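INFO batch 0412 | record 1 of 1 | parsing
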Amino acid sequence: MDGRTHTVSVPVSPSGELAVTGFEVDDAVPAGRSEKRLVSVTGLRALTAQGAELPVPVPDQVRWQAVTTVTEAGEERPGETPQEVNGSGAAPAFRYGTGAVLADQAYSGGPVGTLRITAARASAPALKAVASDAYLTYAGAEPGQEVDLTLAGHTVRVTLVASVRQLPTTGPGATAGARDLTESSTKPGGSLLLDFRAVSEVLAHRTGATLPPTEWWLSTAPGEGPKVAAALRELPGTDPAQVLVRDETAREMADDPLGAGPQSALLAVAASAAALAAVGTAVGLVGSRRERSAEFAVLRALGASRRRLARTMAAEQGALIALALLIGLALGAVLTRAVVPLVVLTGQAARPVPDVVVLLPAGQVAVLLASVAALPLLVVAAMALRRTEPAVSLRQGDN
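INFO prediction complete | emitting tokens
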């Protein structure tokens, strides 16, 4: 505070729309007597990455306000009320009194005075949130209800506008890349989704309240996702495993939805069921043919041709085989859709979100049905082509 003009630079790394919301000037409280000081901010400009200086547009309608505080031993108390010299436009200026401390209190780490100049802001809109079902159960709340949250050490009121089963990157089913972001994401109390800009608007009215983000969700142009992910993974200090791509995660889940154990078990069950179905149907056809051998012998003796009897047998047994295949297909589809989602779990032994999609490829299903029907059809063909004497069958029937 020497009465001269000083240039202050603040490095900003993120790109995008940024806004200056205020300034803070800190200095030790003078010893002995209070001082009157004038702080004026002028020449606000931005320096681009190419080295060009651009003036920061400040509408004349912008209003500035100021307060002073004194911080001592970790406790903050209000200071003297600043006097407005220029409270609008691009050059805010305020005069304030520093206050004073006794000479023996002027030591390193003693009281610090702060002048805080902030842009007057409209009232922040009410916060709205989407809650997971687990949060509603944990908090005993329901959509439409207002709840109090603690954000950045401040209590804010939030209206629950909707509910979902689960929010991405939260809960026990969260992906491995997000498990280290916050400890709260794995707690059973559920989670809330709020708009970060709206939260920042609310916290901007609270002195010293800041809420840094712990993860970013990015959208890219169609087909640019892999390129953007590769560029992010090459940034210094970035763990490549923390950069998650939705398409990559979807491919991983689709390529290996089951572990080796469940895969082997399901394959063995499917093969055994197909074999048992084929053998059981074939045995049933043979038994049925023997039971009806006397009937076919009577028809043969009454003049029915061998070819006509063979066609009759093939039609009857084919209808039974087709009916069995249709019933088996329906039961298999129902059991598959009921069992597979129960055995597909995440690395944390939780149900995945979104839910497992069970697909039954038509080609593979057709091959399975053909393999099951092959043995019964061969048995039917063999029985239809088998030559038997009516007299022998009738004598066996009499016996």
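INFO post-check: Residues 237 and 243 are 12 Å apart (CA to CA).
INFO record closed
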